[in-house]
Specification:
This protein has 6 helices and 3 strands, in the order αααβααββα. With 169 residues, the protein is mostly helical. Strands 1-2-3 form a 3-stranded mixed beta sheet. The longest helix is centred in the C-terminal third of the chain and has 26 residues. The relative contact order is 0.19.
Length: 169
């Protein structure tokens, strides 16, 4: 198997988990936060829905300087659940296509992520993709699970059963 084929196995699982979580985001709690330092519910949901565009950028660009980014920042304004899911579909489709087209050689090349002169990471593209796309998405999807729980909304079973759902592979 190629590196991309292995990553695509995880990709489909993580997109499915994120979708099942986003499908439960309420439309009337955009500004709700569990703590003053926390991201508002709607913004966090939009971040999860659009985060795969960052994965697409990792796969398509030679690197990224956040101080001088040539890519647009995704608007994180929640409007409706339907729009949220449309954003997930669009970002995941672009990211998946880029990943499916990536060769082992491409994924093995170093990818520099910086903020001006400050190097954040300079690792193989496959590692940057896993850490800054997959791990980042899993982290924020899990946060959404906490937001759901604190608002008495059933939490989906993602990697095993939740208190609300049985899990099936």
């Amino acid at each position: 198997m190629t590196i991309a084929e292995i990553l695509l196995q995880d990709f489909d699982t993580e997109v499915s988990n994120t979708r099942r979580t986003l499908e439960r985001v309420p439309e009337d709690k955009n500004d709700w936060k569990c703590h003053d330092k926390s991201m508002p519910f709607g913004r966090l949901a939009m971040h999860c829905a659009t985060l795969l565009m960052f994965g697409h950028y990792i796969l398509e660009d030679d690197g990224m300087d956040m101080a001088n980014s040539k890519r647009p920042h995704m608007p994180l304004v929640f409007t409706t659940r339907d729009n949220l899911l449309t954003q997930l579909d669009e970002s995941s489709s672009k990211c998946r296509a880029s990943l499916a087209a990536a060769t082992d050689e491409h994924l093995s090349k170093l990818w520099k992520f910086s903020y001006g002169e400050q190097i954040i990471s300079h690792n193989p593209r496959s590692q940057a993709f896993r850490q800054m796309c997959f791990d980042h998405l899993i982290h924020h999807t899990a946060q959404l699970g906490v937001y759901l729980r604190l608002n008495d909304i059933p939490v989906p079973a993602l990697y095993g059963p939740s208190a609300d759902e049985q899990w099936s592979a």
